[in-house]
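Re-running the complex after MR caught last week's input typo. The corrected sequence lines follow. Everything else is unchanged.
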Amino acid sequence: MRQSQLLMPTLRESPSEAEAASHQWMLRAGLIRQLAAGIYTYLPLGRRVLRKLEQIVREEMDLAGAQEVLMPAMQPAELWKESGRYEVYGPELMRLRDRHDREFTLGPTHEEVITSLVRGEVSSYRQLPLTLYQIQTKFRDEKRPRYGLLRGREFLMKDAYSFDADWEGLHRSYTSMYEAYHRIFTRCGLYFRSVEADAGSIGGEGGTHEFMALADIGEDTIAVCDSCSYAANLEKAEYGGKEQAASEESSVRDEHEAELVRHHTPNIKTIEQLSQAFELEAAAFIKTLIYAVDGKPVAVVVRGDHEVNEIKVKNKLSAAHVELADQTTAERVTGAPTGFAGPIGLQIPILVDDAVLAMESGIAGANEADYHLGNVKPLIHLSQAAAGDFRNAEAGDHCPRCEEGRLAFHRGIEVGHVFKLGTKYSEALHATYLNASGREQPFIMGCYGIGVSRLLSAVLEQHSDNNGIIWPRAIAPYQVHVVPVSVKDTVQMDLAAHITSRLSEAGVEVLMDDRDERPGVKFKDSDLIGIPLRIVIGKQAAEGIVELKTRKTGEVQQLGLEEALVFATGAEY
Amino acid sequence: MRQSQLLMPTLRESPSEAEAASHQWMLRAGLIRQLAAGIYTYLPLGRRVLRKLEQIVREEMDLAGAQEVLMPAMQPAELWKESGRYEVYGPELMRLRDRHDREFTLGPTHEEVITSLVRGEVSSYRQLPLTLYQIQTKFRDEKRPRYGLLRGREFLMKDAYSFDADWEGLHRSYTSMYEAYHRIFTRCGLYFRSVEADAGSIGGEGGTHEFMALADIGEDTIAVCDSCSYAANLEKAEYGGKEQAASEESSVRDEHEAELVRHHTPNIKTIEQLSQAFELEAAAFIKTLIYAVDGKPVAVVVRGDHEVNEIKVKNKLSAAHVELADQTTAERVTGAPTGFAGPIGLQIPILVDDAVLAMESGIAGANEADYHLGNVKPLIHLSQAAAGDFRNAEAGDHCPRCEEGRLAFHRGIEVGHVFKLGTKYSEALHATYLNASGREQPFIMGCYGIGVSRLLSAVLEQHSDNNGIIWPRAIAPYQVHVVPVSVKDTVQMDLAAHITSRLSEAGVEVLMDDRDERPGVKFKDSDLIGIPLRIVIGKQAAEGIVELKTRKTGEVQQLGLEEALVFATGAEY
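Corrected-run output:
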């Protein structure tokens, strides 16, 4: 491809709206342009990369035995009502009406459509297992689209759905997808971890893993063991070496020892303020938060230096929604302003974290303005509360899997998700097959997603330097950038054309910068668009000598024509 | 691919909702399933064929120098308001609002988006010419979706847009696309004609061609010369050997000869009834129709055996809308009930077709209930009317291009369209570049569409027999169907596996029917899904002999293994 003809509008400066590095590079290198918030056009370079990602995904899906289909973006609302998601999904679901006033959704996902398809076409266990996938545009009306393709409203996804006769079958299908995902992300040059994750609102039972690209901009926090392969989403992360409840022996012998001490703490509300006032570490305090669990108030009690994990609370109570109670509710149930809540005397259910029970004593809110209580002995005073693990894992916690490891935290971008759905959709939509004994059974399903356009962003978060993009070769828009220094020099241009044609014949994709620009401009653009190998054709062209520069390492070599061609067709860059 | 694992639900019977042959075969061979009216899921076989079509289109677009982009389906309504199409497009434009109540359209086409993109990114004549294309899902809320993929509401299209500095450039871009379209449809095995077409409501000046797949089910009528290459849409078709106006000599010498004759014609309204009553051919009558042209009544006068061509009327009057006037209007301007309109005495503009002026005299409506006028001499009585070509071409008319040819009519399915837009969108959206003298000029644009999913239907309208599909090899889902007669026979199965693997290694795509079904069922399905070459492995497997059947010709050969492999990897089927 001749660069003079390519629509590749590079930008000198970083556009102010681009907060994330990947977003900046995509705009500056002319990969994408925004049409509306969270909605982008892919320009030729961006489209090329996206197609390479699609192709890698497609090859690995086919290799894993999945069959490609293509489902519509427009989905009848009836199907979503049948699954119960039409009301639940909320404002992120794009909705429209056709000319006959029939309701449709623009699919953010296709569980309903695929389940209804398979319900109609598959009737016997002999037709199972079956895994279907598509690569298709999805729609989600994000409240705050941001970071370019990382959180968009129209985006490209690969979604796959498996149908099995039993849970063992699902496990095989799931594992096969899990392994395919590892191959896909590896081929794309991504640094990633697969992490155990919570089921979230999509529902379902059993295992689920998220594939996280490690990047500071990531919206998720993941806990990773520094010794074994354990990795989990923060919301799901467990930890080892659980705090033992304070021993019976250390507990009180007589009532006097259990007497609470009333501390006047005017306007001292936060753990930080308490810590200063009492000259004690945060771990010496007991923190009480009032939650609304499916609308009803529940107190959750954790150590002062810990954070409540709402997912663990939710799972413990088998609840649908857990959120912090509003101020009015919190003040009503505690009888005190925010900052003075405590576990003692509350008339609502209380969950107390194991780490609190391991404290001999601590200081907690008094449920009275400007007062805290000292000498709170959890084993005594909180003996009626439900105990368990209700806190987030913390950096330095023991690994829950291995003996030696400690947990460290990273930020991650979710680029893939594998999920054991079980019978959630097959039951809701009455999608059944006949088993070997002729009995009707709901399909056991799994679903598997990859954000293909998001993956493009994630790769760029990891593969750039101050000068621009550094494409992993497998997804580079072109592998070689041929740059004649002066387009007016016919010797250079002839050699450039010769190299381009020889490489193209060898199946190497070449971009040739035939623009009449200063060398500085050409090299700057070349660094910016990040093609893995640059072949500069300058003054030594007459002697048949060219300069090769590897974008990733910056390594420069002067080579003769034939050697250069060997290098450019090889795997050394 | 093993057929036992493939989701390919074939149907014995033709579903009642399928009127078109292509629609029937697509349902019966398990290529597609309907999700909602005009909205389909592509099953694995259908998806494979669709991808092959996509790939052919992509290769030819790239070869023609077009660059692939990907634009969003969701388009801000503002852009459509800027171009003026938001109101004009009518109910076929899918519309929705996002969570912030902003209006969007689901693009049926992308002129607005591409023009606004190029407006922002291209500023100099040095960046021209530029042709961008995409292969993408489009939405159009058809009033009556039908014929499967032929007239759907969500469909796959390739659309391309060219930007040039001048009309000569546009002509080159247009010609390059025109030629690419010929290559594309030829590669797909389609019988087609490129026909001159009218600009239609999309607007623009200059040339436009439609690519028509010849098929009885086609919604368009095309006129084709039986001698030269002339072909045109009925609405656009011209004809040669235009009727000469009746010569002066044959016209009246004195007033008496021009005297009108009043005929009582009670309840005789149609040309057919008149023809019977007067015992004259339809060509002896003069037909007058009242049209609403941009809301104003206009009379159009054609010979009794001719049909008014509304496009020609529209173009003559440079009008935006031409439609038959409603009955009230027609009765008001003629003063008579429908069936008795005539050109004489009307107080509204009159267009009279050349063929009428060639009549010495004729019989026309009297603008009075139950009366017609005889001895109407167009040259005298209609001398004030505007003359011209206002009728449809007819089978048997002279070709407008060559001397010898006569026009014949065919039905066609529009599968492609190339269109010189000119400055319609660049002016509306103020999309300009600086020319060599630094002056701002609007881009000269062209647009080029191919209905990729519709093409799939069109191919199937032409490529089937009573037993099923006959895929053209270039777009067949698999090239070879390996059918072991008995899956319990290990010799057969081993040979089937061997052949499958040898062919796969040679790059041939193979479907292997490993189902435990009766041979009759297998052969029926094989005919139905129409893979070009079938290799049947039966009793002679032990001697290494197999049977090859070419789907298209029905030709059967018994061949040894190696010969069979040579044939299957060759180009002879």
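None of the earlier attempt is carried over here. The mean pLDDT of chain A is 93. Chain A touches chain B through 56 residues (CB under 8 Å).
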